[in-house]
Amino acid sequence: MNPLDELSALTKLFPDGPPLFERAEHVPAALVPEPYKKLLKHDAHMTVTMEAHYDAPVEVHILERNLDENIYSRRIILLKKGTDQVVQFGIVRFDLRYVTDPIRDEILNGDTPLGRVLIDNNVLRHVDLGALLRLTAGPGLAKYLSMPVGDVTYGRLATIFCNKVPAVDLLEVAAPVNGVEPT
Q1: Helices (H), 12-163
Q2: In the chain, how many domains are there?
Q3: Are 121 and 106 in contact (CB under 8 A)?
Q4: In this structure, is residue 179 part of a structural domain?
């Protein structure tokens, strides 16, 4: 699927509210400035990457969620634990058929970032980077990431394979990094 079509499919899971983006572009890794490239161009869980970058655990705050039979979707922000500092915005679509009932319950409970749940429960997983994105903030993203409308940040589309099955589709957007002017 075209990355911008996948982006559209994920954002349409939560159609209410102001637009997230004024513009979204699929970009090659060579055009992603640091530290965004380091934060996004990898095959690890963003939970681990954000914790390493911010030298602190992260916690999840669920903005919206839907459960349609086995398909669980949520729009979230990750915060540096114990603070109001948002480090990431995300949208997740998870086919829960590929995890056990206790893991399903922990995910639906929403107290722990998804990556941490999968890691702590030793779910055999692989993260497949789909595309890197240059995103111009619309009113929605600007609100969630505390950034001006029209400013740029970077994100990625990824798929998590659980036990060798593509189970999770993700949009993960890095919060603006202080002192870095995205191009």
Answers
A1: 36-40, 46-54, 101-109, 114-120, 139-145
A2: 1
A3: yes
A4: no
Q: What is the mean pLDDT of residues 150-169?
A: 94
CATH number of 63's domain: 3.40.1410.10
Q: Which residue has the tokens 């949520």?
A: 74
Q: Reply yes or no on whether the pLDDT at 183 is more than 80.
A: no
Gap between the Cα atoms of 106 and 157, Å rounded? 24
Report d(CA 63, CA 77) in Å as an integer: 7
Q: What is the pLDDT of residue 182?
A: 57
* In contact, 137 and 174? CB cutoff 8 Å: no
Domain containing residue 63: 3-174
Residue 30 has phi, psi (to 5 degrees) of -60, -25
Express each pLDDT in 76-110 by its tens digit.
Answer: 999 999 999 999 999 999 999 999 999 999 999 99
Backbone phi and psi for residue 82, each to the nearest 5 degrees, phi listed first: 80, 5
58 contacts: CB under 8 Å, gap ≥ 6: 47, 50, 51, 78, 79, 80, 81, 87, 88, 113
